[in-house]
Amino acid sequence: MSRIGKKPVAIPAGVTASIAGGELSVKGPKGTLTMKLADLISYEVQDGQISVQPANDSKQARSFWGMQRTMVQNLITGVTEGFTKTLEITGVGYRANAQGKNLKLQLGYSHDVDYAVPEGITIATPDQTTITITGIDKQQVGQVAAEIRRWRKPEPYKGKGIKYRGEFIFRKEGKKK
Q1: Which one-letter DSSP state was computed for residue 44?
Q2: CB distance 156 to 171 below 8 Å
């Protein structure tokens, strides 16, 4: 039995959820999100909560159970609170600047890197070395953060590059004389 899957997902006030045409649609104050439903899982919206159960007793249905419940919870959290990832830039001359729907990065290359911000994502730069990515879709927020980080991953000798806030960079010792 899945410990996570057994718990129903509570629907807070101001949020509506409905199942139609093989999709779960959740509407809240921040927007609307939809998710395709897995065939091996049965979903029920009742009494202000969404319950997720395996449709049969197969191993695959039981293995999908907890993950599908977590994905439903992410929909509810996204339309009520949203998701945020924070990136930190370390390095001399490395900086970021949000300009409308573009993010301009100076990362030590001979040119500036321009990143076009996708629809549904908000990027803010509180200072030159911090990038805050906000949106209602958890997967999309993480994907955008990973794409920005990919331009200059942190290196292990000086720690220069773009890292997630709270990420530990394993440091190596340099050459010895």
Answers
A1: E
A2: yes
- Is pTM beyond 0.85? Reply is yes
pLDDT of 174 reads: 87
Whether residue 128 contacts residue 90, with contact meaning beta carbons closer than 8 Å, is answered with: no
Residue 1's pLDDT is what? 64
Total residues found in the chain within this entry? 177
Nearest to 35 by CA among 49, 48, 45, 20: 20
- The predicted-structure confidence for 1-33, as pLDDT tens digits, reads as follows 678 888 999 999 999 999 998 899 999 999 999
Instruction: Identify residue 167 by its one-letter amino acid code.
Output: E
Residues 103, 124: Cα–Cα separation, whole Å: 9
Mean pLDDT of the chain: 93
Backbone angles phi, psi at 96, to 5 degrees: -130, 150
Does residue 108 sit in helix, strand or coil? coil
**Interatomic CA distance for residues 112 and 173, integer angstroms:** 30
Tokens coding 92? 């001399």
